[in-house]
Amino acid sequence: MTLIGAHVDQTDPIAEAKARDTTVVQFFLGDPQDYKGPAFAYAGGAEGLKADAEAAGVDLYVHAPYIVNVATTNNRIRIPSRKLLQQHIDGAAAIGAKGLIVHGGHVNKSDDPAVGFDNWRKAIEATDLKVPLLIENTAGGDNAMARYLDRIAGVWDAISASSDADKVGFCLDTCHAHAGGNPLETVVADVLAITGRIDLVHCNDSRDEFDSGADRHANFGAGKIDPDLLASVVRDAGAPVICETPGGAVEHAADFAWLRERL
Description:
eight-stranded parallel barrel; two-stranded antiparallel sheet; 15% strand; globular
């Protein structure tokens, strides 16, 4: 059976998992819009969360801050981003997380995308990957590193030269793919042809139309994505699922049931 969980508050991820009757959750370690580094809100700290999650049989995933952009040519963003990436890798490892999800980032409008690809390679080589790093496709931006398939291929070609390339995986977001202009009918096969792997699926409906470039998630059945397509992506990817849909435990449980019915 496909493992389906949700993005939750980090204060007590185990309780959040139980409230949703699941054994997998994702959360931020700290402010997703801040360079301060990870913070552990769980009462038992990082060590307590790792031990308690293992005892409860709950798998943890950490989402890196949105501001991480290791691809950019702007040193004032790229260098702090690398530092922040390492800090969150360390934080994810401390709680026994299965992986750290990070957005692909972007370069400036006038930049050659190849520079961004190489900056990704440099970031991988400079980072101690204590847990798998899962690069996530994004919805918008003309010079994004992970919106279009050819850019994802550019990133993958660049990081394949790194000795730690096997520690880099892929997180496929259905809303981002739809809004980013990648047909869900073929996106799993397209991504697998590039990366050889899909480690996690962010299954989300989209409030906006195909190729809108808008990253606006919706609950299942309330957005613009065909229900059968959402289910087929999950089925074909064969990876654990995290729903980043609006609401709390009640809404997430309804989304889980909606998805399971179609799987």
